[in-house]
Amino acid sequence: MKQGNSLRTDLILIAVSGLGGFLLSLTGMSIGWMIGTLMTAAFIALRRPALFQRKGKNTLRIHSRWLLLGQFILGIELGQKMNMKVLHIFAENWLPVSFMLVFSILLAMLSGFVLWKLSKTDMLTSFVGTAPGGLSAMPGIAQEVGANTAVVSLVQTIRVLMVVLTIPFTVFYLNTKSQSDVVVAQGSAFSSGVFTISNISWTAALIVGAWLMSRLAVRLHFPAPWLIGSMLGVAALQVGAGALTGHDLIPYWPAQANIASQVFLGATIGSKMNKQMFVGLKNTLIVAVVSSAGLIAATVLSSIAIAEITGISVITAILAFSPGGIAEMATTAVTLHEDSTFVAAVQVVRIILVIAMLPPFFRFLHHVWAKRQTDYKTAK
């Protein structure tokens, strides 16, 4: 198929899948675009209509460049959140924040170990699936490191939905403020700035920095280089510029960019689904639900303990350390007049740590596991 036809086919699949994301986004869920697009693309992939089939294979005709583009945009969004304000918050509360971030990641790894031992899911997929790096990032990383993207997407979706459906209700129950004090938070957690020459210029500088760092990450063979590279490049520019000028520079970054990244990621990942990926998932889903519930309960109890020790509001601590989405937790904090800046800062730091540090561990894990399997077969 010619390049023009291939591009046109990709765009048709992305547009059709994006309709599913649009419909789910009407529920108000910020990650709805990602989940809806992924589910629609997966349905098309499983049905395998002739229009989208790759010749001789069971996957759809969609180029991996869309995954890289989605990761690149997502990396820029996450990198923007790492600014001087986040560093000040982290510096003021470095001990409890560091403890809870490490503890939450260890809990997630324990959840992955349980999923691996009690289900038919392989070790790499289990650990990637339970890593608290966010639904937008982890399926893409799973595809990069060779894990089962279907299982990772399902496990991540289960955890995010359980957090979103339980944590806000829990903190609303704990909240002692009167209903008249409640305000509704509006706007996207990812949109920032206004359309001015200075903001547009800074946006262009961030994009160039993200591209250069991504190219370096590719040369250094980083996992998910377009995600990690763009995120680290933008974060370095944001923090460096803030340190030099004494205040944060604000780029113009519309909320539609976040939607585009979710659609590109969802369509690409969903289009790679096939029936073999879902074989024997019943037990995996049961274990995923139970382990996610245990992870959430342990996080809530630990957050309450940290709040008692440090004096941080219990509700703020729970929202900050819960393994959910940045937008959902920060919006709930604003609604309850809690410290939304602290919540967003801790959530961003956790996701950046997970995305930057765990993929090399996943690759090492994959190498060790593959070697063990080879040695076992040889000995047998």
Short characterization:
The protein is mainly alpha-helical. The protein is 74% helix and 0% strand.
Name a few traits of the molecule.
380 residues; mainly alpha; 15 helices
Explain what you see.
With 380 residues, the protein is an all-alpha fold. The protein has 15 helices and no strands. It is globular and about 55 Å long. About 4% of the residues have low confidence.
- What's the total number of strands? 0
Spatial gap, N to C terminus: 46 Å
Q: C-alpha Rg, in Å?
A: 21 Å
Average pLDDT value?
Answer: 77
Multimer state: single chain
H-E order: HHHHHHHHHHHHHHH
- What fraction, in percent, of the residue positions are helical? over 70%
Coarse structural class? mainly alpha
Largest sheet: none
Outline:
globular
Percent of sequence in beta strands: under 5%
Topology:
Elements: H1 3-25, H2 32-47, H3 65-80, H4 84-92, H5 94-118, H6 123-130, H7 138-145, H8 149-174, H9 197-219, H10 225-245, H11 255-271, H12 281-310, H13 314-321, H14 326-335, H15 340-379
Helix pairs in contact: 1-2, 1-11, 2-11, 3-10, 3-11, 4-15, 5-6, 5-12, 6-8, 6-15, 7-8, 8-12, 9-10, 12-13, 13-14, 13-15, 14-15
